[in-house]
TrEMBL record:
HTH marR-type domain span: 13-144
SUPFAM superfamilies documented for this protein: Winged helix' DNA-binding domain
Name used for this protein in its record: HTH marR-type domain-containing protein
One Gene Ontology molecular-function label: DNA-binding transcription factor activity
Organism: Acrocarpospora phusangensis
Amino acid sequence: MTTAASPGDVRISHEELTRLRMALGRLGRVLRQQNDDGLSYALISLLLNVARNQPTTAGDLAASEGVSPPSVTRSLNRLFELGLISREQDSADRRATRIRLTNAGMLERARILRSREVWLSGHLERLSAEELRALMDAVPVLERLCETP
């Protein structure tokens, strides 16, 4: 069984597609696991989401995370208790609450990302110069895969 990889003549096998999917998924999981404190994956994901979209609302975060509003509210409450986010009433819409990272939240975000980068840097050192160049040459292609069609 073959799968078209592009509108051109290039085809990849089902086995190659499976290997790619599994390698990318495993790499993503391993990077997300580079966390040495008590924050769960869900809390880290939410913290990073707030950082990307602040100021934001609980409803927008729930939609973005693909979870129910009550679930995201529980997680936001935990981040608030930890002092990692702040909540401010929207001056234009008193019913809305805007969520932002606090200074402690920004420091935690930086620590999480730094931990992932340290892990990745250490593992990249195991690659040969040719493997490293091939990987870096693939980055623009991987970025294209992440774009919304």
